[in-house]
Amino acid sequence: MTKIKLAWTATTAAAALALLGATAPAPALADGGTHAPALTTGVLFNDPTSSDPARSDAIPTHLARLIDGAVPGSDIKISTYVFGSRWVVQRLNAAHLRGVNVQVLLDSETRRHWEGGPTYDLLAAGLAKKPAGSGDSWVRLCADKQACLAKDPSPTDGWPGVNHNKFYLFSRTTGSAGATVPVDDVVVQSSANMTTWDRLKSWNDALTVAGNPALYGAYAAYFGRQAEAQADPSKQVSDVLMDTQAGRAKAYFFPRATTDVIVNILSMVDKPVDGRPVCQGNDPGYGTTDGRTVIRVAMHGITRPQVAQKLWELDDAGCYVDVVYRDLEASVEQILTTPTRYGGVATHKLDDAAGGTDTATHTKYLLVEGTYKGVKNQKIVFTGSHPYTKSALVGNDEALLKWDDSTGPGHPTASVYDAYRENFRTQRAVSDAQNALP
């Protein structure tokens, strides 16, 4: 059978910005304050092809605003791989001095990175200052070539574990220095490290979930376990069983010794709906024009054959599977490029290896539009720091965040999902342009 092409029309710039914006300005009052929270749940992306800093620097700018809006006595907790933004660190140091508790866990790679090393020194010096009224703040490094919490399953294999997280927690923030209405329990899950490459050469996302105490509590508990294991390596573990449902959100944490979370998620797609064939039965406006489920993956790297096999099986069953990637392990590439009954998985390489103006995908998201867990017309996002590699599964500290944007009573639009879908289409178009024959 022939694989049906998915047609789409690019949104206007204004519409795209509306989809991507996570912190729309609130109306100003006469006193310069706001009468509504400036911070809401939403997603934003950088655009490394743009010369406009507002687009290429969207993620660090968003984080800087949240830091500037953190109220005295509140907590900022950050766990990330490489932190190389002097500009953001200066705001963290300023937040500490005004009484915010700034606590940061970094992978040891930060010290070796050309931007991360000097930035770490600046942050450490700033948080070490303890004048009256300053926060209970610190920055700590995971042990050299180790994750903080994950116990390396094969210490001699040459693939050390890392703290590969990229999340930011704010217990209370107004969302910017100029806003006055605080929002509690804010989680920002990103794919981006704080480096120049992440801003200017690679595609990244940052999903903000605001006012969700269950989700915030799950991330904070995981951060606490990381901090404990950083101080006492005997508390490192091979399995982190801390999955937490939090309304429309769900958090998954790593490492996992026995279960491939991504394979399990994909296994929920092939649950039949109303006796219809697998991957079919969706209403118009969901999935393909003939109601088949669409799976979109924008992934930095895939080395787990089990994940590739499940994607292939879903395409063979009738789903439309579309993958933008930077790197595929050889066996994974062989699986994904094997024809299916519906034509095969669509693959698009997006890598900056050729230099010049080429860009790379650094996102790690999976989009499901259609059937999921036996329910039709779903729109679900899975995003985070977790690439589909073996080390990310069993040897790294990682987080994966699910956001169920399916419409229903009280949730009439799917703006988060739709923004991810537009970003995927943009990355796919850039990939196809980069790889076009002269």
- Compute the number of strand runs: 17
Order of helices and strands: HEHHEHEHHEEEHEEHEEHEHEHEEEEHEH
Whole-number average pLDDT?
Answer: 92
CATH architecture type of the largest domain? 2-Layer Sandwich
- What is the CATH level 1 assignment of the largest domain? Alpha Beta
Low-pLDDT stretches: 1-34
Evaluate the radius of gyration.
21 Å
CATH topology of the largest domain: Endonuclease, Chain A
How many domains, as an integer? 2
Give structural notes.
The chain is of the alpha/beta class and 438 residues long. The protein has 2 domains: 19-237, Endonuclease, Chain A (2-Layer Sandwich), CATH 3.30.870; 261-434, 2-Layer Sandwich (Endonuclease, Chain A), CATH 3.30.870.10. 29% of the residues lie in helices and 23% in strands. It is built from 13 helices and 17 strands. The chain has an 8-stranded mixed β-sheet with strand order 9-10-17-16-15-11-12-13, sandwiched between helices. Strands 1-8-6-5-2-3-4 form a 7-stranded mixed β-sheet, sandwiched between helices. Strands 7-14 form a two-stranded parallel ribbon. Strand 11 (294-302), helix 10 and strand 12 form a beta-alpha-beta unit. Helix 3 (58-68) runs parallel beside helix 4, helix 9 (261-267) runs parallel beside helix 10 and helix 10 packs parallel to helix 11 (330-336). The longest helix is centred in the last third of the chain and has 20 residues, at 415-434. The radius of gyration is 21 Å and the shape is globular. Mean pLDDT is 92; it is low at 1-34.
